[in-house]
Amino acid sequence: MTKADLIDEVSKLAELTRKDSEVIVETIFDSIVRSLRVGDKIEIRGFGSFRTRQRKPRVGRNPKTGERVEVPAKKIPFFKPSKELKDLVNTGGGHAPAPPAPVAPSPV
User: Fold this and answer.
1) Chain centroid offset of residue 27 CA
2) Where are the alpha helices (DSSP H) in the chain?
3) Pairwise CA distance, residues 94 & 44, whole Å
4) C-alpha radius of gyration, the chain, whole number
5) Could you give the CA distance from residue 72 to residue 55 in angstroms, rounded to a whole number?
6) Region of 65 on the Ramachandran plot (φ > 0 left; ψ -120 to 50 alpha; else beta)
7) Would you state the pLDDT for residue 103?
8) pLDDT for 6
């Protein structure tokens, strides 16, 4: 699913214009990014939590030249799904499972 697909889904389900749905989705994403920038943890019950993790500086290699490169310390975003989300994904969440892919007959 892309951001455009998400905007369309919100538009359909909430019976809003596409423009209003886009504002809602953008606002949510911007809020998450702003919170992560200042080091806050975001917890959405039944879905999961977002936080940042600190990576230490390290020495990497340029894959093209093999040259050693200093990689600075940095923060990376991290998502941890909730138990409910894991269960929904693994049980299908009441939605019909995807039909099996068709099997092509083998040439004889």
Assistant:
1) 16
2) 3-14, 18-37, 83-91
3) 21
4) 21
5) 9
6) alpha
7) 55
8) 93
Residue 102: the pLDDT is 57
Cβ atoms of residues 71 and 60 within 8 Å: yes
Residue at token pair 């989705």? 25
Q: How many CB atoms lie within 10 A of CB 52?
A: 17
pLDDT digits (tens, 9 = 90+) for 56-70: 999 999 999 999 999
Residue ranges for the chain with pLDDT beneath 70 = 93-108
The DSSP call for residue 47 is T
Structural tokens at position 44: 């959405």
**DSSP code of 64?**
T
CA 98 to chain centre: 21
| Cβ atoms 36, 27 nearer than 8 A | no
Place of tokens 């905007």: 7
Residue-level length of the chain: 108
3-class secondary-structure state, position 104: coil
